[in-house]
């Protein structure tokens, strides 16, 4: 388990609903053990989800300012603007997360496992240095500049530290993984060498038959925002009900069989890196999948090759007539085809006024996908087709050397043991938090 993770490992807390009124001779449906009429009327038209953003959790108050500062922190971390219609849902989710954090801190205090202010300050300082390369005062200033505060980030750190401490004492010691289980998994992985494995991001939204339609609508809205450039990691951290929310939904490298669901396996198998799929209905709710990457098990990935490249570029002056630019571009393309390897580049480039930039340590995967594919098919001394346009200029990349990656050995016994243990700890953590919510006294204002 990680010691500090700034996004709390929490699940959704169900919103309370208004009482249901029976009508004359109602038809009754069985839903999760409840008798709910198929046709009913609400006694009140008040929407229980529309509240002022304050709550009292076992006596501890969560204020509107707490919610505002946490929302500002998320907005600052998001990779694209959050639409106004999304903000209400985000605020509701932030309130749920703050409730969970409060319950985690209270449970740690009740069991005499409090997280001290000194521990929080030390973790805050490490986070500022490692993630933002800032000192404490610079970090404080940055948080205030985005409408948040040091207090809200420290509160999140406190919740995560408390939860980690609880899991280490009350959950982890009771999780057992046998040597036989690990050896069996290792044998399966060895047998699958050469097959593909996938790095997948997930957002899981839990649903019951009664909440299915509302959750599906929520999932559709999340997909829409993601397709418009929203951060998958940010949405996973705020909305996912899976334990992977703490790491932005990242499942790590897995084989499709580990998804343990035929619909998810089929969807992931047909995806390409960067593609989003879902919502996919599975037992217990809906899943959104993002294929982050794909590779062959136990095999070297060509994209990890370290390339030595020369970029040859020819820029066009602003306002240059298109006919003249086209003529210069044609001369550039002809000259490149006449270059005899990288040793011949500088002189011939200078003859037509082109510039040359060399880089001897660039990984293929750091380049755009289209260039990766083109470069990995080249021999030393060959160049890509010209790219660019007649306004900005044209350029090519010439391959001057290539260091292919070494074969990978795959996870060892200790890695597999740790993965299995963490998976089981996460399952029990979900039940633990569910129990804390069930026993909590939560008052909304």
UniProtKB/TrEMBL annotation:
Keywords per UniProt: Isomerase, Rotamase, Signal
Pfam families in the record: Rotamase, SurA_N_3
InterPro entries: OMP_Chaperone_SurA, PPIase_dom_sf, PPIase_PpiC, Trigger_fact/SurA_dom_sf
Signal peptide: 1-29
GO function term, MF aspect, one: peptidyl-prolyl cis-trans isomerase activity
Boundaries of every PpiC domain copy: 195-293
PANTHER family: CHAPERONE SURA
Annotated protein name in UniProt: Parvulin-like PPIase
Organism in which the protein naturally occurs: Alteraurantiacibacter aquimixticola
């Amino acid at each position: 388990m990680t010691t500090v993770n700034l996004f709390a490992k929490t699940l959704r807390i169900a919103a309370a609903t208004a009482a249901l009124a029976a009508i004359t001779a109602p038809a009754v449906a069985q839903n999760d053990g409840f008798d709910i009429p198929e046709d009913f009327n609400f006694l009140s038209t008040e929407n229980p989800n529309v509240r002022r953003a304050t709550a009292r959790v076992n006596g501890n108050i969560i204020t509107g300012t707490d919610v505002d500062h946490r929302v500002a922190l998320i907005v600052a971390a998001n990779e694209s603007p959050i639409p106004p219609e999304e903000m209400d849902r985000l605020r509701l989710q932030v309130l749920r997360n703050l409730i969970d954090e409060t319950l985690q801190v209270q449970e740690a205090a009740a069991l005499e496992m409090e997280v001290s202010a000194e521990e929080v300050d030390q973790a805050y300082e490490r986070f500022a240095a490692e993630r933002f390369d800032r000192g404490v005062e610079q970090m404080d200033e940055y948080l205030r500049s985005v409408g948040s505060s040091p207090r809200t980030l420290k509160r999140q750190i406190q919740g995560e530290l408390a939860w980690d401490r609880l899991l280490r004492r009350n959950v982890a010691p009771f999780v057992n993984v046998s040597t036989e289980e690990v050896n069996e998994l290792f044998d399966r992985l060895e047998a699958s060498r050469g097959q593909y494995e996938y790095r997948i991001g997930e957002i899981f939204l839990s649903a019951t038959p009664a909440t299915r339609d509302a959750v599906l609508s929520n999932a559709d809205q999340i997909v829409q925002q993601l397709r418009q450039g929203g951060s998958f990691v940010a949405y996973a951290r705020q909305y996912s009900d899976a334990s992977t929310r703490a790491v932005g939904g990242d499942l790590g490298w897995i084989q499709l069989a580990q998804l343990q669901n035929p619909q998810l396996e089929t969807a992931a198998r047909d995806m390409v890196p960067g593609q989003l799929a879902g919502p996919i209905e599975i037992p217990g709710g809906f899943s959104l999948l993002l294929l982050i990457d794909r590779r062959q098990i136990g095999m070297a990935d060509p994209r990890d090759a370290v390339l030595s490249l020369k970029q040859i570029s020819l820029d066009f002056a602003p306002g240059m007539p298109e006919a003249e630019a086209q003529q210069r571009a044609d001369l550039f393309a002809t000259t490149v085809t006449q270059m005899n390897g990288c040793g011949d580049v500088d002189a011939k480039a200078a003859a037509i006024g082109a510039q040359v930039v060399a880089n001897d340590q660039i990984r293929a995967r750091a380049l755009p996908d289209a260039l990766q594919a083109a470069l990995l098919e080249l021999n030393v001394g060959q160049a890509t087709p010209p790219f660019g346009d007649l306004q900005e200029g044209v350029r090519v990349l010439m391959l001057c050397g290539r260091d292919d990656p070494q074969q990978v050995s795959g996870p060892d016994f200790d890695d597999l043991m740790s993965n299995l243990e963490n998976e089981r700890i996460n399952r029990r953590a979900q039940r633990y938090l569910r129990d804390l919510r069930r026993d909590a006294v939560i008052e909304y204002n």
